[in-house]
User: Which sequence fits this backbone?
């Protein structure tokens, strides 16, 4: 069976940046499963996996535009620390949910100076070229429930 729309693909992968730093991985002991064609993974990787079958291995280079997008400096702002009401200590790396014109978004604190906090609404991998080494372990049809819910139903799924 080939990976295509509404198929469940189970893969292992190692994700690195262009300098070879490992960013993420899914192993045979803890593989990654997703429904193909519904936007569960970045577009560049999804296109590369189309048509692959169990046992296939591939190396995929994904440019930022087909990954998490280019960095947008307009998504970085300096705010008054007072806007973080109820938060005792704000440190770089902390993340918060923020209401934006496009809905809820996650922002990351990148700097804290006296009474100002710099936040960044870019995805942490925005602007980063991504390199995947992938092995396809399994391909199967997604169930109607999985398609309806938009994710895989496996152990521990409560619906």
Assistant:
């Amino acid at each position: 069976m080939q990976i295509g729309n509404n198929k469940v693909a189970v893969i292992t992968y190692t994700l690195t940046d262009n300098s070879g730093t490992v960013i993420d991985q899914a192993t045979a002991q803890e593989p990654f499963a997703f429904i193909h064609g519904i936007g569960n993974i970045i577009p560049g990787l999804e296109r590369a996996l189309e048509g692959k079958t169990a046992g296939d291995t591939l190396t995929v280079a994904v440019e930022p535009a087909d990954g998490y997008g280019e960095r947008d400096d307009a998504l970085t702002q300096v705010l008054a620390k007072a806007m973080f009401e109820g938060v005792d200590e704000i440190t770089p790396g902390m993340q918060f949910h923020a209401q934006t014109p496009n809905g809820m978004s996650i922002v990351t604190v990148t700097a804290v100076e006296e009474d100002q906090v710099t936040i960044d609404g870019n995805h942490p991998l925005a602007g980063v070229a991504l390199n995947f080494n992938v092995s396809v372990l399994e391909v199967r049809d997604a169930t109607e429930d999985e398609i309806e819910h938009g994710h895989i139903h496996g152990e521990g799924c409560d619906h």
